[in-house]
Amino acid sequence: MQPFPPPRAAYVHVPFCRHRCGYCNFTVVAGRDDLVEPFLAALATELSWLGSPQTVDTLYFGGGTPTHLAAAALRKLCDLALEWHPLAQGYEWTVEANPGDLDLERIAVLAEAGVNRISLGCQSFHSAKLKLLERDHTAQDIEQSVLLCRNAGLQVSLDLIFGAPGESLDDWLRDLRQALELEPDHLSTYGLTFERGTQFWNRLQRGELRGVGEAIEREMYLATIDTLVAAGLEHYEVSNFARPGCRSRHNETYWSGRGYFAAGPGASRYVDGIRQTNHRSTTTYLRRIEQGKSPVAEEECLDAEASAREALVFGLRRLEGIDRQEFSGRTGWKIDQLIAVPLRQLVAGGFLSDDGKRIRLTRNGLLVSDSIWPELL
To answer: Which of 32, 82, 298, 333 is 20 to 30 A from residue 350's alpha carbon, by CA?
Structure first.
């Protein structure tokens, strides 16, 4: 493996939410706003352990719901992040937001700090689906949030979920059309998954919820690709679509296998070939930092081969695929050294294409990509 360049991206996890949605498996605390100040203090301590400010090209606040914080706390969070992660010229700074709590005051704080991209967790425009997903906003909230962002000069990305119980293909296409009417710069679309440990998983086991089924979910995904590409968006990653020049540069850091800093409960960083993940429990995270202890719960040192295999899988998530020569130069491994046999099988099965220079997912491969990755790791 070639020497690891210093990371040029940073992620900050903000765990607070008004309510934990039934499908959510992220590091979240709901109804614990009493922890906001201790969280900011702990974050300041964790970031100080960087030793010196680390300039980045992309900065990302995820959650949870960063915009759940009151304006004053949000301003403090922004100042803190900028102190330890100054932004390079031409930066991208994204903040995840909930349409239900994004208001003029919060948008003003973010815009003044220098945020230039908002990722809105819309999930749907239809009241019955929003209620089922336990979201606390309306279609009108989404429209108002997009307007606030536009007026502040911010790029807008929308997140949508398909395959909710009882949802039809026509229902999903209506969601896509309403999203396109708002002319977003970027769209992320995800099939609903029932994650073990969530309320939706428990309800599924009790027979209270039923998935839409694999066949309908495939139809929805293919219709998504066709609809969004026809509307002028570029399908550049398995779940992501962008207008020209509006890809998520931060997420492309992950997909290209480059390093990144991270702070906050549950946050994962990848620095110098070492992946570390902080405790998912917000209270444990706070307690450990208050005691001067590391918040890291898991650590994995990737050897050269594991690192190259991971870069391969992440790279194949992108529609442009992997350039053999570039991959070899970057990782020190030839693709055929790593996956010669599964590559031949996946090409023969019509799931990957390989022209000798570049390897890509095919349309059929896109439909089953999650089942391909284990074969390559």
So the answer is: 333
Residue 64 backbone zone (phi > 0: left; psi -120 to 50: alpha; other: beta): left
Q: Which of 278, 282, 279, 331 is nearest to 309 (CA)?
A: 331
Question: Would you call 235 helix, strand, or coil by DSSP?
Answer: strand
Residue 225 reports pLDDT greater than 70: yes
The architecture CATH gives domain 9-255 = Alpha-Beta Horseshoe (3.80)
What whole-number distance in Å separates Cα of residue 352 and Cα of residue 362? 5
Residue 301 tokens, joined: 């040192």
Task: Output 201 or 246, whichever has higher pLDDT.
Answer: 246
Q: Is the pTM of this model over 0.85?
A: yes
Alpha carbons 64 and 72: distance in angstroms, whole number: 18
**pLDDT, tens digit, for every residue of 152-189?**
999 999 999 999 999 999 999 999 999 999 999 999 99
What count of other Cβ atoms lies within 10 Å of the Cβ of residue 221?
Answer: 20
Name the residue ranges covered by the structural domains of the chain.
9-255, 324-376
At residue 214, φ and ψ (nearest 5 deg) are -60, -40
Contact 120, 158 (CB under 8 A): yes
Task: Name the residue among 27, 98, 87 with its Cα closest to residue 54.
Answer: 87
